[in-house]
Amino acid sequence: MASAVDQLPAHPPVAKVSTVPWVPLAWFSVLLIAAYFPILRALVNQWATDEDVSHGFFVPAVAAFIAWQRKEQVLALDLRPNWWGLAVMGWAAVQGFLGMLAAELFLQRTSFLIALVGLLLLVGGTKLIRALAFPLLLLPFMIPIPSVIYNQITLPLQFFASQMAEIVLGWVGIPVLRDGNILELASQKLSVVEACSGIRSLLSLTFLSQVYAYFFDKRVWMRWFLLIVTIPIAILANAGRVAITGILSEFSVELAQGFFHELEGWVIFLIAVALLAGVHVLVSKLISGRHPGEGSNQGPSQGPDHGKDQGPDLSQDHLAKG
C-alpha cells in the first residue's frame, strides 16, 4: 500500500509569474503624457469644439476597454523588452519636432501614437504589440485628418449631396434649381455647406464599423469589408438627408433649421448604422449558405474523428485492470 508521501506529485505546480513590467510601463507612460500634454490638450479641445471629430472622446475609451478585455492574454505572455522601441520613439520625437517647426498638427498628434507603440515595444516586445494590435489600430480614428486632405474631400461631397438631392426632389415633383452646392427652392435657398458634406458621419461611421465588427464578428476580413462599405453608406445617407431637408422645407421652413435639422441628422445617422448592420447580416448569411462550416463565432475544431467509435482501449493500464 502506497503511502501518502508517494502519492504527492514530484514537482508541485508553480504559479506563473506575470512578466509585464508594470513599474517601467507606468513610469514611461507618465513621461510620455507629460511630454505630449500640450498637444493632447489641444486635441481634446478640438474634440469639444469641432463636431466633425466629436467622436474622438469615445476612441481612447473604447480602445482602453478592448485592451482591458485582453488583460488575461497579456498577462499570460512571456514578455521581453525590444530595444527597437527606442528607435521608434526616436522617430516619433523627430516627427513631433518637425511638426512643431511646420505648425502641422497632424504630424504632432500622430507622433504621439508612434511614441506609444515604441513605448510598448520597448517594455513588452513584439508579443505585446501583437496582443494589443486592434486597440492600437483604433487610436488613429481620434486624430483629425489634415486640413489639406479635408478640404479636398468636403467639396466633392458637397457637390455630390446637392446633385443627389436635386434628383430626388425632381422625382417627387418639387421644382429645384441647383447652382453648384446651392439648391434654390420655391420656399427658400438651401446651401450644402461643409457641415452638411457628410464628412462628420463618414468619420464617425467608419470608427463605429470597426467597433461593431469587433464585438459581433471575429473574422478579420469582415472588418475590412465593413470599413469599405461604410463609405458609400455614409455618403448616400447624407445625400438623403439633404433631399429630406428640401422636402420638409416645402411644408415648413422651420423644419429645415435649428433643432429639427439636428434631429434629422441624428435620425439619418441611426438609419446608416442600421444599414451597416443589415449589410453585415446579409453578407454573413450569404457566406454561411455557400460555406456552411464558416461562421463569425466558430467554436474550437474537434477534428475529423470526433464522435466516431474509437475502438477498444488497448492501453497497458486497461489490460492490467482486466
List the SSEs and their pairings.
Layout: H1 4-7, H2 22-35, H3 37-49, H4 58-69, H5 71-75, H6 84-102, H7 105-131, H8 133-138, H9 147-171, E1 177-179, E2 182-184, E3 189-191, H10 199-216, H11 220-251, H12 258-290, H13 316-321
Model description:
The protein is mainly alpha-helical. It has 2 domains: 22-143, no CATH class; 148-290, no CATH class. The protein has helices spanning 4-7, 22-35, 37-49, 58-69, 71-75, 84-102, 105-131, 133-138, 147-171, 199-216, 220-251, 258-290, 316-321; strands at residues 177-179, 182-184, 189-191. It has a 3-stranded antiparallel beta sheet, with helices on one face. A hairpin with a 4-residue loop joins strand 2 and strand 3. Helix 6 runs antiparallel to helix 7 (105-131), helix 10 packs across helix 11 (220-251) and helix 10 runs parallel beside helix 12. The chain is globular, with a radius of gyration of 28 Å.
Core attributes:
66% helix; mainly alpha; 3-stranded antiparallel β-sheet; 322 residues
